[in-house]
Structure prediction request, 204 residues.
Amino acid sequence: MPDLDTKDAILTRRYDLSDSGHLDVHVWKPEQEPNNGPYLCFYRIGWPTGARTHRGIGIDSIQALEMTLLSISTQLYGSDAYKEGQLTYLGTRDLGLPHFKGEIPGTDDFQKADLLTFVSETSVLVMPECRFPYLAHPGDWQKELASRLDQILAQITGNDHARDKLRKTIAGLRNDQKYYEKVCQNYGLTPPYSDLLSDQSAPG
Prediction:
């Protein structure tokens, strides 16, 4: 690995971290390997636990840079900090990075929620340009599941790791539920559990 000095980076960006202040990303100029080898583009993400350096690879410098940005996107959007709402850019959850088709990150932009299928039973949906199909559940099933997991969470004691994992799962279900409710609102539909919605959980 070459000696990488941040002052030589060709791209930099600073993200906000609610607990740790900020997270810096640096990208260096793509360079070709000897003997007409591939192009390597090194980048570094300054995680609070320690900076980590990786590389993107391409048949030319543009592809190497493209793969680098996609790799950065995958790591940031897939991080616990992002999933827990701690990682933001310019005050929003849109990190301003490219992503693979069908892997659009959940930016909580419920205003754009669109109808995938009508509520009836569990469905497997193959979406255009998506790598994997989606598994769709009726909204009332998912709301009941989240409630039952809340009860299980309350019973777990002495295992912080298990509690943390379950808490993140519940948070993900609640996030999906908000999207579901916004879809209903956009299409003039009433959620089957509308009588249970409080002012805080209702979309809007």
